[in-house]
Inverse folding.
């Protein structure tokens, strides 16, 4: 089976290399010539564990994956074409910007010359895949193509494993022919007994947004519980642990912290609500989740400001929105650091992978090559992202280079008593 992937961003590239790993021939399309040259040389444009190895394997050894800048002449032998371009938030309306999806649909319509499936894998509002069909059918006989919704459920930092060993695969189709083709595509997962959920196109599109919005709801909920815990002297980690033992609730996404960020949850929550409003449906819970998460940044920032002298130097550890990625889109760490800078604090920052992207977000921050260098002369430490290398820092060493021993452990990765014994003033989240 020959596959074409349009868009070599996070979703597109992971999809491409993983399908190549399954043994399919994959052509990845992108208009960014610099990005393509980097990919052709086997270098991934973002940090994702395992990606460089798979790129090298399937570019140079199996030769199952290749790259081009146009769809022209690349649909001739393609059985399935995936749309994996970005759908960022429109700032004023909070809705998904689908302009890239429409452009790809138009380009597909110009180049179809035999039957193929057109699959939307980008995260899109309900009704988008039908509109893609409409755009293509304006120029192409409907007998030459079918449309399918096949949302992704990838977590940055573990995306390859998520693709190869998924909890489920969702395929939204409108006829048996396209359903059969998609099930054949994912046949390598049958051996792992992966559930293949076949639905209508509209149901598939909603599943993606509903899933991400529910996970975001769990995060916002436990963060509000954390606020109560701090006031009454309870421990949110113990609360979350006891809650998570209940199988109806589950323990995942019940870690209190500075809020959710990244390229998915913030924009998907907004887009889900915006889509519902257009249908005269108000998603009250989802709206509250969005508001709660936005206010979370101010709450955390105010807490820090009230406990650190003005104009102090602060060491900020962790800038990516989560560990094992260099993605700083909607990073709570960047937002908090920026607010502190606006209040006159000097921020000495370190992140294992995300500093280049962080510099592009806020060049006013100071960047260092290690956690210990960033701590030098600081009056306080903030742990914003729970990278593994921050879990066992040498605080005896750090104590000697700090100006004042204050720590804000936003991810609760340390035992408060251990740091208090070393003379630290410790502030966790929900404790």
């Amino acid at each position: 089976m020959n596959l074409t992937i349009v868009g070599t961003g996070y979703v597109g590239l992971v999809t491409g290399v993983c399908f190549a790993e399954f043994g399919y021939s994959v052509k990845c399309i992108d208009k960014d010539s610099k990005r393509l040259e980097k990919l052709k040389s086997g270098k991934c444009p973002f940090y994702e564990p395992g990606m460089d190895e798979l790129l090298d394997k399937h570019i140079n050894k199996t030769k199952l994956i290749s790259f081009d800048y146009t769809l022209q002449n690349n649909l001739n032998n393609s059985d399935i074409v995936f749309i994996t371009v970005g759908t960022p938030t429109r700032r004023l309306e909070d809705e998904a910007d689908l302009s890239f999806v429409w452009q790809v649909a138009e380009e597909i319509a110009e180049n179809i010359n035999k039957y193929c499936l057109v699959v939307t894998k980008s995260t899109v509002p309900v009704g988008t895949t039908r509109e893609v069909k409409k755009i293509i059918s304006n120029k192409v006989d409907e007998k030459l193509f079918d449309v399918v919704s096949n949302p992704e459920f990838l977590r940055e930092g573990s995306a390859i494993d998520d693709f190869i060993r998924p909890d489920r695969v969702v395929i939204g189709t409108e006829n048996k022919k396209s359903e059969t083709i998609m099930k054949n595509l994912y046949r390598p997962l049958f051996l792992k007994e992966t559930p293949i959920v076949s639905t209508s196109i509209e149901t598939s599109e909603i599943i993606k947004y509903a899933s991400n919005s529910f996970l975001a709801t769990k995060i916002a909920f436990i963060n509000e519980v954390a606020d109560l815990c701090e006031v009454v002297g309870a421990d949110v980690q113990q609360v979350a642990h006891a809650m998570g033992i209940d199988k109806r609730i589950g323990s995942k996404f019940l870690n209190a912290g500075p809020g959710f960020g990244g390229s998915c949850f913030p924009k998907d929550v907004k887009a889900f609500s915006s889509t519902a409003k257009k249908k005269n449906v108000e998603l009250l819970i989802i709206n509250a989740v969005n508001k709660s998460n936005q206010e979370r940044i101010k709450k955390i920032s105010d807490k820090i400001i009230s406990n650190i002298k003005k104009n102090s130097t602060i060491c900020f550890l962790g800038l990516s929105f989560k560990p094992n990625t260099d993605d700083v889109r909607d990073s709570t760490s960047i937002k908090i650091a920026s607010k502190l800078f606006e209040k006159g604090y000097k921020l000495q920052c370190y992140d294992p992978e995300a500093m280049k992207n962080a510099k592009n977000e806020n060049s006013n921050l100071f960047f260092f090559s290690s956690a210990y260098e960033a701590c030098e002369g600081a009056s306080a430490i903030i742990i914003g992202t729970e990278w593994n290398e921050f879990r066992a820092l040498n605080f005896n060493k750090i104590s000697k280079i700090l100006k004042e021993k204050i720590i804000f452990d936003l991810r609760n990765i340390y035992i408060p008593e251990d740091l208090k014994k070393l003379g630290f003033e410790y502030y966790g989240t929900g404790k």
Observations:
- The chain has 16 helices and 14 strands.
- The mean pLDDT is 96.
- Residues 209-295 form a domain with the N-(1-d-carboxylethyl)-l-norvaline Dehydrogenase; domain 2 fold (CATH 1.10.1040.10).
